[in-house]
Amino acid sequence: VQLQASGGGLVQAGGSLRLSCAASGSILSIGDMAWYRQAPGKQRDLVALITTGGYTNYVDSVKGRFTISRDNAKNTVYLQMNSLKPEDTAVYYCNAFPIKYDYWGQGTLVTVSS
To answer: How, if at all, do strands 108-113 and 9-12 pair?
Structure first.
């Protein structure tokens, strides 16, 4: 399965972006999905996850600002990001949860200016 993230860009602090992750196969067959991000010089960390049943969880730093969702019919996972902060600047990736290393795609760059 290939996962292609898109929707990143340059946005001012306080702005919004919606990321999409399109899978080449069924995301139901993958199972639980998640968004991860990697800031410059830092490790790649979990941001948000969504189970096949729709349960969601978020890292504390994005709670109340980010919303993860999935459309199983379209094999797509989304990340709605509101009230963006400069510290949200990173390359964002989608993958399964837990991670399946063969599924890493190129990611999409989000840059938040102050």
So the answer is: parallel
**Identity of residue 95:** N
Closest to 51 in 3D by CA, of 19, 77, 25: 77
Q: Classify 6 as helix, strand or coil.
A: strand
Place of tokens 């890292």: 59
The share of the chain scoring above pLDDT 70, in percent, equals 100
In degrees rounded to 5, what are phi and psi of residue 17?
-145, 155
CA distances to 27, 61, 77 from 74, in Å:
9, 29, 9
CA dihedral 6, 16, 48, 89 (to 10 degrees): 80
pLDDT tens profile 48-94: 999 999 999 999 999 999 999 999 999 999 999 999 999 999 999 99
